[in-house]
Amino acid sequence: MPNISEKQYDQLEPWFKLKATEFNQLGYENIQVDDIYRYFKEFSWKHTVPPHYYQQIRDIMKTTVNHYFDFVALEAQVYKVSSLDEINFDDFL
C-alpha cells in the first residue's frame, strides 16, 4: 500500500473536503473527509499514487458516489462478521 505523506495529505485535504461536501449535497451526509481519504489510500491508490499533483486532483474530482460505494461494498464482503446483525448498515448509507 502506498504511503501518503503528511505533506501530501495536507495538500490534498481541501480536495477531499470538496468531494465529501459534494457527496453530502447529494444526500450522503455520512460520508466524511476521512472516508474519502481512506477510499483513495486503500482502494483507488492502493498500488500507486499518481506522481503529479494535478493527476491526484483529477482522480479526486472524477470520483463518483458509485466509485465510493463499490469500495464500501467490497469492504463489506471481506469484513469478517459472523452475522449480518453485527454490521452497522448506517455507516454505509
TrEMBL record:
Pfam families, alphabetized: Post_transc_reg
InterPro entries for the chain: Post-transcriptional_regulator (IPR025716)
Origin: domain of life: Bacteria
Designated name of the protein: ComN-like post-transcriptional regulator
Biological source species: Trichococcus patagoniensis
